[in-house]
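SAMPLE LOG
Freezer: B-3
Tube label: C17
Construct: single chain, 212 aa
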Amino acid sequence: MSRIAVIADDHGMYRMGLAFTLKDRLGFDTVEEAASLDEALARLGETEGIALALFDLSMPGMQSAASLAAVRECYPDLPIAVVSGSDNRSDVLTALAAGVNGFVPKGLRDDDLVAALKSILGGSIYVPASLAQGAAAGTEAGAGTIDLARLTPRQRDVLGLLVEGRSNKEIARALDLGHGTVKIHLAAVFRHLGVSNRAAAVAVAAPLLARG
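STRUCTURE (predicted):
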């Protein structure tokens, strides 16, 4: 079965280069291109078997990263990432809150871009360390200092596995917990971090855990 990706970006040369990388380095057979959000939605609706969708934030129809929430709602299992020239932490958090699987800067070197996209395709949430730290700083500034020591040991274990990209089922198996118990711990962690979903939690917590 052929592997298909969608690139939504109004810069034709960038689309061309990214399409080449997807085919040459990541094994995609077909890359559908779109120059606006509406065109991208049409491609998604018309094409079966899409395995990855990449969206720029600055193109016709894209009001903000929040516009991707509707895409996520329609395609809950599709790996979706922002590929953007923005380094605004608000864009990062808004995109993650919308449910995307990653925020990839356009300035990444080719090898780093490939590694980021492989991570997303593998089920992980990708945010570069520099942007993740900025996102965490922005959250702390808006909601007070986040102290992970206030989490229970079990909540911290759950958070650590979440940051590693583990699913709820994998977390439950690793910690010998029930699926419902994992959900309860995650809800408590989300409240503590001031976020509403897994992706935003990873962006906020990853740099904090890295600092110990």
